[in-house]
Queue: 3 jobs
Job 1
Amino acid sequence: MKKIIYLLFLGMLVHAAAMAQSNPDKRQPPPPPPPRENQRGDNQRREDRGPGPRRGERMRPEQREKIEMFKIQFITKNLELTTSEAEGFWPVYEAHKKSIQEIIKTKMNDEILMQEAMLNARKKYKADLLPVLKTEERVNNALRVEREFLYKMRHEVSRRRGWDQE
């Protein structure tokens, strides 16, 4: 008797499973995914898409200006520059920045020459900063602070784009 009940139950189970499967000819395709922001056809204005340039776009001058101001504040705060120190520091910093940009333009094809030139530029920058900042520790901090700023900027960009895992 138990065997008959089990067989009936198993038969009903198989029948229900067979009925639950849909006919492949009658299946509808899944709905298309919603359009991504840059694929929309409604000519969405730039201001509506949110801050910052998209991949392949150049940064607007006002954005670049804001970042430069934030950088100046960040460096001034971290180095604890006085007014007189700031007057001596920023011309040296700008000269260093221009020399780095020039190195990147001219030595881009030869990695070793570029790294050597970068190292020499950093050594000159350190020597030029010593009379302004007075101590070796503050000069080393000045060499480190720009890298910290770049790290902060990358972190902020990744956080805003949703890539941050923290």
Job 2
Amino acid sequence: MEIIYFLLHLLKDPLTTLQDFLAHYDMLTYAILAGIIFVETGLIIMPLLPGDSLLFAVGLLAATTGKLDIQIIIPLLIAAALLGDNINHFVGKNFSQFIKSRNQILFFKQDYLIQTEAFYEKHGGKAVIMARFIPIVRTIAPFVAGAGNMKYSKYIIFCIMGATLWVTSITLTGYFLGSNIWVKNNFEKVVLGIIFVSIMPMLWQFARIKVLKKG
């Protein structure tokens, strides 16, 4: 029950949640952050955990509190994302038929899988990088790559590029904007903006599919 409360609070207000954890757990926060990123990217049944907003909040807190070292947190979260991706890829390669046979498992819906497969068909290998910046899709993408015919040697190159770009760009954005008063006072608006920008490619793809079907 406590875990569910924590996840709901994290989804609603990642900045306040992280501030509370820093106050109570100090250095253990590094492990907690790595665990969240790992679960969000590595467990196909948990696609709704915060990703972009969490990274932005981490960067902001690193700049304003001094309790998180940006030179430690970025490599750590890149490693967590890569580990999650590779486990998800392994699951896709070995258990895809079982998961596809279920309409819903916890927070995972079969519709997410269908949408991500369409995204791969549209963008090919570069979808691994692009998917990093799209909520839900980034959780399903490694699974789809594992279940599909993409060679691992090709996948891992895109995987490393995507994880590095995603973690570095969003965390540093939060870090350099963290001292801005407006950003501090309007964190929720900034997060909503990040989420909106992140899902724009997916919304565009869905709209395009709808138009083609009607045509």
Job 3
Amino acid sequence: MDVLSAIKKRRSIRSFRSDRIPDDIMNKLLEAIQLAPSGGNRQPYRFIVVQDKDIKVKLAEACRWYPGRPQGQGFIAEAPVVIVACGSEGSAVVRYYKDEGMTLAIGWDVPTEVDKESVAYQSTMEMDLAIALDHLTLVAAEEGLGTCWVGAIDEREIKQLLAVPDDRRVLAVMPVGFTDSWPEPRPRKPLERIICYDKYSRNE
């Protein structure tokens, strides 16, 4: 399967079989994460592979939001594997502006006077992590596995559940597994509404 075919095949799957993922396929998924590019090749992340049934149930319960799904998202616990993506802004490349212009640094080295809440301050950590997870989703699609990006999470509860250090972030949870339910693709905006050339244009 070529890359574009995998992109077209990928879906957000919310119904999983309990079938175990073979070791060779699991290794491919993890290698896809490992090979992903990141700012400065810093790889400022750690991915927790959750397979324990009881932990998966608690993890699914922590994937909640109010008022939408206060009880969590039970389908997550159905998957044989759940990937929990953790990031470290301190070890990521960051960009910020000082009087002399734009500066790149590693998060730990940013001067304390820099306003990290400013829109001019940006860490590559979230982008790096998203690239790695997207690599995983495409290899999963190629292997006939479903995935689902889950960002509606109680981060504090998940950090406590999985012993994630205070200086790390939990940004996403991704169940992975075989499915009997492969939905039709959801609509996307036409290209002319998301692509512009040479300059930004508001053609929304």
